[in-house]
Amino acid sequence: MLKIWRSAYSRFGLNTEFPDDLQDETVTAEKSYSDAVLKEIAAYGFNAVWIHGQLHHIIRHPRYPEFAPHDRQHLQALKVLCARAQKFGIKVYLYLQPPRAIPESHLDFWKAHAGDGGHSQKLCGDDGKRFSMRSLCTSIPEVRAYIRDSFAELTRQLPELGGFIIITASEYPAHCYSCRNCRPGPVRPRKLVMDHVATDCPRCGKREPEDVVVELIHTIRDGVRSSSSEMQLIFWNWSWSMYIDPPCTAIIERLPKDIYLLADFERGGYRKDGTFINEYSLGYSGPSEQFLETKSAADKVGIRVLPKFQLGTTHELATVRSIPVISNLFRKAEYVRKNGLDGFMGCWNFGNLLSTSLKAFLFFLESPGALPRSQALHRFAAITYPGSDPDKIVGAWELFSEAMEYYPFTIPFLYSGPQNHSLALIPEMGPLSGKKIGRSFLPDERGDSYVDSETAEFPLDDIIDRLSDLASIWAKGTGLLRETLPEDHIDLGNALICGAAWQSACNMFRIYRMRKSWNDSMKAEWMNIVRRELCVAESVLPYVEKDPEQGWHIEGDFYSFNAGMIRKKIAVMRKILQDGVPSIRS
Questions:
Q1: What is d(CA 265, CA 335) in angstroms, rounded to the nearest whole number?
Q2: Do 507 and 536 form a contact (C-beta atoms < 8 A)?
Q3: How far apart are CA 280 and CA 309, in angstroms?
Q4: Can you give the pTM of this predicted structure?
Q5: How many CB atoms are closer than 10 A to CB 127?
Q6: What is the separation of C-alpha 573 from the centre of its chain, rounded to a whole number of angstroms?
Q7: In this structure, are residues 518 and 431 in contact, taking their beta carbons and an 8 Å threshold?
Q8: Among 178, 176, 168, CA closest to 136
Q9: How buried is 9 (Cβ within 10 angstroms: 0-12 exposed, 13-18 middle, 19+ buried)?
Q10: b/e string for 253-266 if b means 16 or more Cβ within 10 A?
Q11: Residue 77 gets which letter from DSSP?
């Protein structure tokens, strides 16, 4: 079974106007994947890792002599990594999104290749700077020949690779329909999951986006197969709903038969309360209706399906070691095992710290015999925590899963809520400044307005009520763990940090609600919330100190909270309560 993971210490790389290709993961991963890291990944039970690359940084081609000035460094680093990984039974997979768009400010390139340009769009780079990028148009036969030849050469030069993981829809621009919501000309008379934005490519604008995507997939496949009949090809269906309604049958039925379809396991599902799940989720076990429809469409045409998970953490709470909803992990693993799937991809570029959650998933996946959920949970608890009470541990896990049913799951809340950094946010009083808190997954300056996390589905009062219920039920679970695990156990600490984050987020939303219509009569209640928040911070600080990777958002490579930030917050809150300071904005 193919079990794909990645190191938490390998950097995905940044999308910027003037990138340094020698900082790409295809160069740096050789050092970040030390023998110790590879050995530990293998010990957990994984047999593959994926790393991010850019085709035009790795392989030279006569049509575009500007590309791949450091191809030897990329190829040599990959060869070294593949050889070292093989010692531990691990294969390396390259994750690519070809052909990545080129910034319009690269004037010499576009002067030489103006006729190859397609859709243009302006975007914000990972460094916060806005710039325009232009696609290489894959409706041009010569551009497709470049892609086909490059994959053929890459496969020929790196036979040690396990294979390729290819995405054809992304936040990053690539082909002329790859940008978010891009569709041809007028709105078509059919229900679309996402609003359309017309492409400005004169060639692709006359075509359907699914036709462009299918053509690109076959171009890549043909290039690889011209050099190898064995190299594995995995095509990911992430956000094909930008092109055509799920389950995207018009793409699936035209896929090559010798590839794997990687399908998101939770996206496109509904929680028991009717909440729509359109992101990775640990609080929702899946499989989603969309996944099941996708697999059914693939089964009909003989395409093998691999599920895409995030088994450690998700945007639900991305800055902890793991979200320990072990009973939900059982349900995910049970589906893979019962349906005889050939493997899975277990993480994205965050949420990939090694943890007991991963051990649990692989245990449930590979244990001989199909034990019922309760028995499987008890057996895993007894093996993992010898000398502890399995009933209490399993009881805690069940409560954690129950608590997550109250999570206010929407994309705005996931991406713009304070839950990832609430433990470091210092409460203020008085009217709001209006500055937004920023994106949860990047180190934006943190403002005091959470307006972007409010939705019609989950308005502010509902968010507060749900977080309160979540935190209350979670606390019952951590109470059970405390009765049976040592105080210094890393899993107890992790669960307590999760619970503190839920309670802290609830407190910060309560303060936000007060400050939206602030008057001085609210000071007493504001001070009461600060007292409660001080208790949260003081109680969680020792556990954050013992586990310094807590609070680290791996995707943005920054700390949303850490022991130093919490100590600073505690000092400020103690002073507020001691002196009655009316505002700490300075």
A1: 10
A2: yes
A3: 7
A4: 0.94
A5: 12
A6: 33
A7: yes
A8: 176
A9: middle
A10: eebbebbbbbbbbb
A11: H
Tens of pLDDT, residue by residue over 11-35, are 998 889 999 999 999 999 999 999 9
User: Long-range pairs for 455-461 at CB < 8 Å and ≥24 separation?
Assistant: 455/410, 455/412, 455/413, 457/275, 457/410, 458/408, 458/410, 458/413, 460/509, 460/512, 460/513, 460/516, 461/513
Q: What is the pLDDT of residues 426-472, one digit of tens each?
A: 999 999 999 999 999 989 999 999 999 999 999 999 999 999 999 99
Q: Is 583 exposed, middle or buried (0-12, 13-18, 19+ CB in 10 A)?
A: exposed
What does residue 395 show for φ and ψ, rounded to 5 degrees?
-60, -40
Whether omega for the bond prior to residue 98 falls within 30 degrees of 0, making it cis, is no
Contact 471, 445 (CB under 8 A): no
C-alpha 299/C-alpha 263 separation (Å) is: 13
Distance CA 373, CA 380 (A): 11
Question: Strands 260-264 and 304-308: what pairing?
Answer: parallel
If pLDDT is split at 50, 70 and 90, which confidence band does 586 have?
A: very low
Under a CB-based contact definition with an 8 Å cutoff, are residues 129 and 17 in contact? yes
Using one digit for the tens of pLDDT, what is the confidence trace for 403-437?
Answer: 999 999 999 999 999 999 999 999 999 999 999 99
Q: What is the DSSP string of 445-472?
A: ---SB-GGG--SSS-HHHHHHHHHHHHH
d(CA 188, CA 230): 40
Query: What is the C-alpha to C-alpha distance for residues 522 and 530, in angstroms, rounded to an integer?
Result: 12
Q: Cα–Cα distances in Å, from 360 out to 32, 270, 326, 357, 441?
A: 26, 24, 7, 5, 26
Place 581 in a pLDDT band, splitting at 50, 70 and 90: low
Q: What does the block give as tokens for 153?
A: 């050469």
Q: 180-187 long-range CB contacts below 8 Å, 24 or more apart?
A: 180/239, 180/242, 181/242, 182/119, 182/209, 182/242, 183/209, 183/242, 183/243, 184/208, 184/209
Predicted confidence at residue 197, as pLDDT, reads 65
Token pair recorded at residue 484: 């049976």
Could you tell me the two tokens for 27? 């160069």
Please provide the distance, in angstroms rounded to a whole number, between the alpha carbons at the two ends of the chain: 56
Q: What percent of the chain has pLDDT over 90?
A: 89
> What does DSSP say about strands 558-559 and 552-553: parallel, antiparallel, or unpaired?
antiparallel
Paired tokens of 488 = 């210094």
Asked whether the beta carbons of 469 and 273 are under 8 A apart, the reply is no
Instruction: Point out which residues pair with 3 in neighbouring strands.
Output: 344
Residue type, 9: Y
Among residues 542, 584, 549, the alpha carbon closest in space to that of 567 is found at 542
